[in-house]
Structure formats: C-alpha cells, structure tokens
Amino acid sequence: MFSCDPGYELVGTLWATCRENGSYDQDIPTCQLICSTWWRGQNCQHLSASALGGISAAAALVVIVVIFIAIIVLLKMRGTGPKYSPVHGQLTFSAMGELRADAPPKPQLTLFEVDPARLEICEKIGRGAFGVVSRALLHLDNETTREVAVKTFSASSEEEDKLSFLQEIRAVVDLGTHDNLLGLIGCCTLVGDLMYLITEFMPHGDLKSFLGKCRDFKQKNPYVQVAVEGYYKSSNRIYKFQEKEMYKVSLQIAKGMDHIAKADYIHGDLAARNVLVGDNLQVKISDFGLADHIYSRGYRRQDRLRKIPWKWMAPERLTDGERYTSQSDVWSFGVMLYEIATLGGSPYPDVPTADLPVQLKNGYRMPQPADCPQPLYDLMLQCWRLDPEDRPFFHRLATELEKLFNDEVDLVEKETSV
C-alpha cells in the first residue's frame, strides 16, 4: 500500500503486487501537491478553468463600468448653453490647455466664465487698442458687490487681437497670485460678440498717469519737505513722491517681475503704462497680452511687436525680432526706472525713434536725470548692458532695491525724530 506526506495526494493505484522478478503488476503511483480551488497542474502553476472564467467576467464588468462613467462625464462636460462659475470673490483657476489660433476661442474659457448679468458697468476709466476699460460692480453670491475693472474687446477686433486676449488670460492663470501682479477675477466670452476681461480695480490708475500727477503736485509745492506730513491733505498725500517712494515702487515691480521670470515667462511689454497703482502706493503689473512662456513660444507676426513702442524694447528685440528672453524684460525695467525717476518723463527725449537701434548698439545710454538718486541710476546702467547675459536678474534687483528702500526709510525716520 502506498501513501504520501501531508500536503500531497496520491495519483494512481493505492495497491500493487510485487512479482518474482522485482517488478510491480501495476504502474507505481505518484505524489502530487494538493492545489487550492483556483489552481491546477503538478506544481499548481496553472489557473483552473473556473478561475479563468471568473477573471474574464470581472474584467468585462470593470470595462463596462469605466465606459459608463466616461459617458456620464462627457455628457456633463458638453452640456448645452453657457456655463458660469459661481463668484465668491476672486476665482481660483486650474491649468488650461494650449490656446490655438485655429480653435474656436469661446469653448476654451468656459471654466472661467462669469455671468455678465452679475456685472454693473459704471464709468469708463481708460481706452485701449481693442476697446475700453470701465469701472464696474460685480454682484457676488452673498448679495454683496465688489469693485472691479472690466476690459472690453469689441466685435471689430481682429483674430490676432482676440488671441492676445486669450493669451492674457492664460498667462494670468499660469502665473498664479502675487502681491504685485494684477489679479484675474473672471471673463465673459459666451454672450454675443463682446468679450470681457474682469480684473482687480486699482483706484489710482496706471503708473505713468500717476507719476504725472506726482510731478504736478511737486511743482505746486516745491518747498514742502517730506517731514512736514501735517501739511498735506489726506487726499493728496499719495502724490508726495520722493526718493523713498521711488524705491518702494521700483522694489514692488522688481518682485513681481522676479515671480514672472521664475515661472519661465516673459512679460514682453513692461512699462509704467502697464503698472497699476492702488491704495498705500501698492503697485501691480498688468497687461499680459504679450506675455509668453519661454518653452512654448512659437512664431509671432511682426505686427504684434510693432504695437510696443521701441523706446522700451531691448536692443536684441530691435535687431533680431523674436529672439528675446526674460533678460530683455530687465532692459525694459531699466527704462521704467527712468520713468519713475523723472516722474513720468518720456525716455530718450532727444533721440529720434528711427535712430535708436544704432545709437544703443554704439553705446548711447540716457544720462542721469536731475532728481535721480545715484544708486537708482547705477541700477539703470546695469539693466542697459548690451549683452543680455551681463544684465542682473530680477531677484538681485529686488534685493538691491529692498536694501536701498530700507536705508531710505531709516534716514527719513532719523530726520523726523530730530
């Protein structure tokens, strides 16, 4: 009689008779590993037929469920009619897909739409190349209102301009929030032919116009010293723009541009006209219609570049067209420092625009303005180095300006305490 160790089963006959020649009258049985329910074979290495059938059925069920869920999600995404996001103050955006000139613009913005019925358009506060900018009230879900600015793009705008509008939204979404970047509230693109861009409202307008008011205020009050705070009316105090204020504004812009550069973006149109002024002299960079991601930049028509005044453009942009980097923004930042130091003065006042590329290549740089602090002019000259690689990065400019600002604050405090 044959038997197997525990865990094995006998395969073959249980009994056999031994012949005189030493052989058995039947085949000798073997011991085989006892397999669990789902396995078979001598070493339990094969799935049983019942197991294979069960797995196939389960896989088919999973596929059916996935297809069903995908259909439901697709139907919800497609839907019918405009889709509006509930407004709870400032919206939070997720990343968009690539914007394409050959794609219908409106469906690409549905995630950011605000119902235009929530907007109460007030007075016009500016005019741009594609339409007007108005102050407006945005009615929120909690029955309160928020003061906003609405940039309107008219139906007569060209397709290239509409793409710039879409690119501006994309840039603001990619760049995220920063204290010195103008925040996007939402947009309206699904009703009629008009397109609205809704942003934060900055009560003191653009920096160039603001600097002009500071210049007028200074001319009317030439002998008033900074320490005599009680002299100023509260409504005019913000226009008292001296060395400390120069550094304060320049520092904020450098911080905002550092954020843009670290996000691998190029602003492309940095100038005082594209910086907005809020209360307490807080400034925010705006107008991202020409902003461009370094690693996704493709061909651009030259008429896009002609919309930028040459006097703010770096030499490499004037001579090589499209070949520029964030260091080209550094050059423009230097020109804007000149605007700040001259309280809104026009750069290169004595150089015809047509002669500017040759003059810059030959080494001409604007002289130091009359009331410009020497450290600020030194930063301008660093920004205007011909080789982009020799110009300082924005983070170093911000560090230098922060030190200059803090030193000036300490000096003013000492003077006022005497």
From TrEMBL:
GO terms for cellular component: plasma membrane; receptor complex. One of its GO terms (biological process) is cell surface receptor protein tyrosine kinase signaling pathway. This is Tyrosine-protein kinase receptor torso-like. ATP binds at residues 126-133, 151, 200-206, 273. The active site is at D269 (proton acceptor). Its main location: membrane. The keyword Membrane applies. Gene3D superfamilies: Complement Module, domain 1, Phosphorylase Kinase, domain 1, Transferase(Phosphotransferase) domain 1. Disulfide bonds join C4-C31. The lineage of its organism: Eukaryota, Metazoa, Chordata, Cephalochordata, Leptocardii. InterPro entries: Kinase-like_dom_sf, Prot_kinase_dom, Protein_kinase_ATP_BS, RTK, Ser-Thr/Tyr_kinase_cat_dom, Sushi/SCR/CCP_sf, Sushi_SCR_CCP_dom, Tyr_kinase_AS. Residues 1-33 form the Sushi domain. One of its GO terms (molecular function) is metal ion binding. Residues 119-405 form the Protein kinase domain. It comes from Branchiostoma belcheri.
